[in-house]
Amino acid sequence: xxxxxxxxxxxxxxLYITGRRDNGYHDLQTLFQFLDYGDTLTVSxxxxxxxxxxxxxxxxxxxxxxxxxxxxLLRQQAQLRGTLPVSAGAAFTxxxxxxxxxxxxxxxxxxxxxxxxxxxxxxxxxxSDELAALGLQLGADVPVFVHGFAAFAEGVGERLTPVDPAxxxxxxxxxxxxxxxxxxxxxxxxxxxxxxxxxNDLLLSEFHNDCExxxxxxxxxxxxxxxxxxxxxxxxxxxxxxxxFAEFDTESAARHVLELSPKGVTGFVARGVNLSPLHRTLxxxxxxx
Length: 289
Hints:
Largest sheet: 10 strands, mixed
Structural class: alpha+beta
Helix content: 25-40%
Order of helices and strands: EEEHEHHHEEEHHHHEEHEH
Radius of gyration: 19 Å
Shape: globular
Number of strands: 10
Number of helices: 10
Strand content: 25-35%
């Protein structure tokens, strides 16, 4: 069975750091929304007993790639349940559009797409909650991609409440740098004491990202690009960066600013969506089976 699956980008429409745990993880409150744009994974299931990645990432061993890690984890759990033969295998091809270290959730989205896709193609029978619990072992952002609905997230990002924010058009720009999440979360100047608030209060307040001041200070490329973008529309950093985004009411307005973007800056325009493209594809596959 060979099926193409989307691995969409996400935006953090707001991100507040409300505390730091003894184990070094941070408590946060954030609003996730998907974009109708991202990577594409071709998943081919077979009976070779092998998990292979035909499009490896330079400098990353396949065994460390979240795609192979997600597939390995699901296969192990399914075989423990006795719902999958030892000979079950799969091959993965990735069409990458999302930059690494961009704050768009590319790696986490890839992992979630593998869990959802293989659960369907292997017919392993895991529920969304069970897949999300597996995904949390791979990264804090994986569960929201598994569940596939826009969500208000708390804890380390695993406690999700479905929400329905406006589906705006977004211009997303990449300043040409890659930012590792631990670099931001370990910065001594990061705000870690924003008071927790109820979701309704947060939705009625102006949106901010507590990571933005640290990133703008440490990365001149982000500072310059965000300062430029703010001239045209409300704009913020997504996640821990490096991508910045501006929101628009129309696609044409977003594309107009994209055409004006500084030389050397890459970007795209996409619609914010509250139902993940991954789950639209899953629904289509289920209708055909």
